[in-house]
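User: Please predict structures.

Assistant: First:
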Amino acid sequence: MTTVSDTVHYVFLAAAACFVLGLHLMNHPRTARRGNTLSGTAMSVAVAATVWLVADEGAISRTGWLVLAGGGLLGAALGLWAAREVRMTAMPQLVSLFNAVGGGAAALIAVNDLLQADTPAAIGARVSVPAALDIVIGAVTFSGSLIAAGKLQGVVSGAPVVFPGARLLNVLLPASFVAGTAWLVLAPESRTALYGLTVVALLFGVTMVLPIGGADMPVVIALLNAFTGSAVAMAGFVLDETALIIAGMLVSSSGGILTKLMADAMNRSVANIVVGGFGTGDGAPTATGSGVPAQVRSVSADDVAIQLAYASKVVLVPGYGLAAAQAQHELGDLAELLTDHGVDVSYAVHPVAGRMPGHMNVLLAEANVPYTQLKEMDEINPEFPQADVALVIGANDVTNPIARRPGNAISGMPILDVDKAKSVVVIKRSMGHGYAGVDNELYTDPRTGMFFTDAKKGLAELKSSVAEFVT
């Protein structure tokens, strides 16, 4: 006879299989939404099955049910609000907060399991080892993600924050992890070991992310996402839940792969990024349309519209400025107008454009940009020499030619070869530098025209002007 416990176990396995399939579907923009829906549905079913199992066991009091229901409703309401109201510019911060919530929740599972054990001293290594690892990874993720979100939001300085003794502290704290983990494994009943390990891990999360500059935030977000998955997997071992282990490892492995890809896109190692010191935060304006340096060529909407209307091939290069202005729909409308006019239009998407992995892809998908027009760096770079116009919207460091020369902050970082196009137009509000804190030589190139304006307003003007030339 199949019990409720057996049925729920099979549901968990089915949900885990759906997680794997959902992650596979997210491998391509065309199927990503379907994969997200499948994974979300599987998670909802798994949560419902968990509630069913708990109800069947009768292990929760009426007060406990009220807390469970209240937490579920509150979480669902916050999730729905975030999905509908949070702007794309704030999405990286939201992802960091999600990482914090995931890591913190996983760590609390281990803490609660140790505190609620009937005979803590009898807990074996099968539980105490993953519990200790869960606390370390989860607590580091929690505090580190909060600092990352603060940097992205501007609450914490986007520049590297390095105080005297910071490097030494970041060596001593991991050493404390080893000692604290060993202590907790050998004496799981020790409250001192439990609380001490938690505090040290929380502190390390802060000191680890503070010295990392804003330019590295996309990599940091991916890394902390991998940490979240690892913490969830450890929680699965603590609770002996296979589905939780599988889900956690999927997040951990995919986050780890993404971290490596993002680091490669910046030509830097993950270890070098964690050491910190790269990026100064948002650049302060050094010139505006009313006072640009003599070597910079300023252009108007009509100047750019003529180039676009009579071009055969146009490459659009979106960056964080596009997200900040919420101008993705205007860019999509301009591209559609050019395409209807017979212009070959492509989007050049750099892996670290924006402030989180896939930021530009998500932004353009929101504007219903055809997936076939999105091209990654390796695919689009050979096409720039054939492009009549490369239109850059707010992208800075990822288009800077000085990356090809040694001796500067972004030396060796693979960039989009925008400067190889026949003509370049850059839409920016000012000559301010990007997160790496270096000036962009592209802006003083003789073939570059600077269209000083807000991206949303500028793209709307371009669409209107182009329409006059093509009709």
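Second:
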Amino acid sequence: MKRKLWFYILTIVSLLVLLMIILLGFSLANAKLELSHSGVHQRLLMPVGTGAYMAIRNYAGSGDQAFIPGYLDGPVVRRQGEDKWTASWYCEDRVYTQEGRGAKLDITCAGKQHQFPLGPAIAATQTQNELPARLVVLSDIEGNLTFLDAALKKMEIVDDQGNWRFANNQIIFVGDSVDRGRDTYAVLWRIYALSQQAHAAGGKVHMLLGNHEQYLLLGKLKSAHPEHVYSAQQLGGYTNIYASDTIIGDWLRKQTVIAKFGNVLFAHGGINPAFVQHTNSVEDINQTMWDYWQGKSTGKLSFDIVMAQTGVSRYRGYFSASSTDSPSAKTEDVRKVLKAFNASHIVVGHTIVDKISFLHDKGVIAVDVNDDQSAKELLVFEAGQPNIVSIDVPRNINAEKAGAKKIRPFNVAESADRSVLWSLIKASYLQSKVPSPY
């Protein structure tokens, strides 16, 4: 009797597996491939019903003889001794390499000149005794170089050539300068170059890591632009171009996740009130981040304070529409945080707001206006006071999202498309192996 039961069970399971294989084969036989207008594979579209498709993102960085007009990605620069370096970059449809010496790299791509300073990175600042006379706050740039350059010029931080003209004043990027936009590497080089120019003029550029900088360094591609993933693949792979032996990768790993100037705290997500009983030290929180990038043991609690869903990079509890992972904090909870850190305000990004907002009796200042419907404004501290400045510089996010796409049939009988399928499966598997919680 038992043998018959097992026989029936195995027969049913076998039939179900066979049915799934048949359905998968049918789906692949009728699948389509979505490409950017430049020929980069974006998604595999699998039919799941009449006119309905399941979209599978392509993390493999493949394409159909892709040509991306005017696009420069990189350069990926690695130091070789005191002043010698090697560089590689992607321009439009191919990779270029160069070896050299000195403190700068000049590149011509698509008829346009680019210069990159290769001097030593300026050390990150954790704390400062007082706020500078003028401090401009930028947040959630997300690879949008066009917006960044326009905002810097509008605020007279740079001149018409993009060079620092902000004297001994300072700017701070409150996380998520990367991802989503195609120009992630260009934004990072822009901030790197500005930090050197500012330092020479007596000013300062501060760079906080948000959750997307952490995604980037860990190789999590969930929000990376497909064309950036493609060019990164041509340059040796996404994790390779941000490795710790590159100028940009090394510099990023040395940045902070929290900073304090005078009585003002800055963190991308915020400080969870539940954590203040365990730490009230900016230095300790940043040290945990640095230890993590160096592969040192941090301990679960220290790790959670920095990188977990409710850590300083991802916390959303200051907002009423917070997620279940970040229960809404009350004003008294915010006061507890501020008291523990001897602060009057905490400036946060990460959660989009309609306009720069003062929350919880002005204890929280929310500055993430990275949305086409949000107000075009920035936060500026002048003589110790926070002020909202209108800049009338659009983000134009939806314009990029609405970029032209191409759809072509996916032919599993063709070896090229089978290679695409295999690389997609492999890349998706590797993404699933990125360390928790990312």
